[in-house]
Amino acid sequence: MSLPENTTVLIVGAGPAGLTTALALAHNRCYDFVIVDAVVEGHNSSRAISIHSATVEALASINAADGILSQAIKGKSIRITSRSSQIFEAKFDPLKNHSAHPYALYIPQNVTELMLVQKLQSLGVQVQRPHRVVGMKQNENDSRITDVSFEDGQVIRARYIIGADGARSIIRSIAGIEFSDPEGPNPANIILDRMIFADVTFEPEPVGPLTLEGHLNGTVFSGNFFLLTPFGNRFNAELMQDGKPITKSIFRVGCAIPSEKGEPPHAPPKEYIQDMIDAYGPACITSDPSLNPTPVKVDQLIWSTRFTTRCAIADRTFTRLGAAVFLIGDAAHIHSPAGGQGMNLAMRDAIFLADAVTKHIQASAGNPDVDDTILQEFADTRRARALEIIGFSKRLLKIASLSYDAYAWWMPCSAASIRDLILRILGGFDFVQSKVAWGLSGLGRR
């Protein structure tokens, strides 16, 4: 497909960050933009599943929340459990004092992207695929324009370039922007640096409180944690692979992989997922009869992946190569999935960026030599927010990875048992539950 020769804004990447940027620009009545992606179609896998209160509010502010709200499961709480009993529950209901959206939404990322794409299409905008960026250079005739070249030989001249092209961002690479852990090349206390996630069905279907829709369940184990989120039958059609129908309830499972287990497979097979469930999962979904009176086994493996929990941030998220070049989403920052903050931060960044770019375009209309104060302020503010989220996710991961091993023979208690005791006690206080829900919601760090 032919691309236009010129555009004011070029968005590279059509994941949640890029799509949200396009929607926010359109909401601001800035329609001179092109959004491209390197792949033929979006990923048909669930990946990120949590959209928090602050992000729902942000999407609603650009009239982009309705489709997602119509499809998503409205989460009631996040629970922390042992393999056999509940330790703590943070209910989202207290957020009604602060937001019109007092819940987390649980929805597979591919469904989120589908809703955003459909909203864009209703505005007459199409994602241009497949177009892979291979180069950028300052335009010879206009120092505020960059010529962006693509693998197929086409070139677009753009005044603003938004790199929303993921953790391996080509925009970041061409711009020569460093991407590293804010604590340095060898950050301390990395305990659980690898994780697996999968969408599965079970036979027979498990029963119990942890299998009910509307709750994200985190099971703590010695030095490890396991995540379980029931989808019910809500997304069976959207998650179907290779035309194979899904008739049973789908569950998202996730597990950190201790280093002694070795490197997990790229796409862990059903047997590997089963072993991790039996080793670390809550009793109600294991095949171990000593833990589960009604043993269950993984029946259908719909999708699986592995990834590292490393953190990294771009040393700057705004620069100039002629055009103003920005990084958002995973191109700008990555961190562990603890707290489910990554996609949320990306989508809120996108909306703030669209506002800053629109203001700069309007200011430039009356003064072509307008400075970049608006753009730099955006970049500085959002990078500071990303650093805050990275620190937050690192703390959550550290707490989740505490061990039940005793400190010493003369102190027969452990860090994990102390954590569990504190959580059990504090969980009885409404204000503690509210504070945890508030921290996860993003409402205090939009």
UniProtKB/TrEMBL annotation:
SUPFAM superfamilies: FAD/NAD(P)-binding domain. InterPro entries: FAD-bd, FAD/NAD-bd_sf, RIFMO-like. Keywords: FAD, Flavoprotein, Oxidoreductase. One of its GO terms (molecular function) is oxidoreductase activity, acting on paired donors, with incorporation or reduction of molecular oxygen, NAD(P)H as one donor, and incorporation of one atom of oxygen. Residues 7-189, 300-386 form the FAD-binding domain. Its cofactor is FAD. It comes from the Eukaryota. This is FAD-binding domain-containing protein. It comes from Suillus luteus UH-Slu-Lm8-n1. The lineage of its organism: Eukaryota, Fungi, Dikarya, Basidiomycota, Agaricomycotina.
